[in-house]
Every structure is written in C-alpha cells, then in structure tokens.
Design brief:
alpha+beta, 7 helices, about 190 residues, about 15% strand, about 40% helix, 4-stranded antiparallel beta sheet, 6 strands
C-alpha cells in the first residue's frame, strides 16, 4: 500500500523518511541490519535521490513514494525472508528507480518500507502511481508471497444492503432521493 505523504514532499521530508526507515533499532536483526539499496547505497540514498532529480531537472513536485509491505504476526516468516521478498519485489517492480528497502522488526508484525525516488535514474521519467499501477503492485506482491508459501489478504466484496419495502415504493414512484443520487452519480 502506498502511504499518503503529500505534506512532506520536500527535500527535508525525503531526508526524514529515509532516516526513519533506516533506524538501527527498527532494522537490526541479530548481527545484520535489514536495509538494502536498489540502484543506490543506503548510506548515500538521500544524495543519490536528489542528484538524480537535479540531473533530469525534476526536483519539484513529488519527491518520493513510500510503500509498505506487511505480514501478519501469525505468519511463519523470518525477518531475513521478509527482507529477501522485499528486495526481490523492489528489484522487479521499480527497475531503473533508486529504492531504499528497510525491513522493520521492532513490532509484532514484520514489515518492509520502500522509499522510491520519483525520478527514474536510467531514463529520467517520473513514476506515477495510478489505480492500475497500485493494483499491479499488489498483484506482484501477492504472487511473490504465494511463491514463498505465505498467505495473502483476499479482499472481500462489500455486501450490498437490500432495499427496504418503503425505499422500493419510493423508487417505484420516482420519489427516492437515493435513486436520484445514484442516477446523478452515474451521469
């Protein structure tokens, strides 16, 4: 899921989120810190993100995307496996983009943060996360998790509340404000 970060889309916001995601107390598991850079080095990710933006003259507007991949506390997954899945996911889905992948182990549930530079370091084009792109990312994440024998969240269909007898009579007489609203929305 993409996290809404519109208020912090600045260089300071980028620096802050990169620092937060890399905190040792959140990412340390045993003798390893679960932080990886895709097309960048974690220690210099901020400078590399900004350099890419400046090189392509795209240093305004959206600076980054923040994506989260989370696992149920009941899931039989190790932090190393969660990080491996996250790195594989980022490498496949954000080709040419600089991405910081940080797996946090400080909560009941293991989760990975992805900070994605909004500008592609290979081509200079900006990433745009529309509804189709988000669904594609969800599908890719689910596919990877299934390959590792993990469970995925299956969205449930929202139940449609049936119309009461009184509402039906109002609609039949063309006096229902709900039906009028539905028609206006459709139009």
């Amino acid at each position: 899921m993409f996290l809404p970060e519109r208020k912090v889309q600045s260089r300071a916001g980028l620096s802050s989120i990169l620092n937060y995601c890399q905190k040792e107390k959140k990412t340390r598991h045993g003798d390893r810190q679960l932080v990886t850079g895709i097309n960048c080095l974690p220690a210099s990710a901020y400078r590399e993100f900004v350099s890419t933006k400046l090189f392509y003259r795209k240093d305004s507007g959206r600076m980054f995307y923040h994506l989260l991949q989370s696992f149920s506390p009941d899931e039989a997954i190790t932090p190393e496996t969660a990080h491996e899945i996250a790195v594989k996911f980022a490498s496949e889905q954000f080709q040419g983009y600089e991405v910081l992948v940080a797996t946090h182990v400080d909560r009941e549930h293991i989760h990975s943060h992805f900070i994605i530079n909004s500008v592609n370091s290979d081509m200079g084009n900006k990433y745009h996360a529309d509804k189709d792109a988000i669904q594609k990312l969800r599908d890719a994440s689910d596919k990877l998790c299934l390959e590792y024998g993990l469970t995925v969240v299956v969205p449930t269909e929202k139940a449609v509340k049936p119309m009461s007898a009184a509402e039906y009579r109002s609609a039949d007489k063309c006096q229902s404000w709900k039906v009028a609203l539905a028609i206006a929305i459709d139009d």
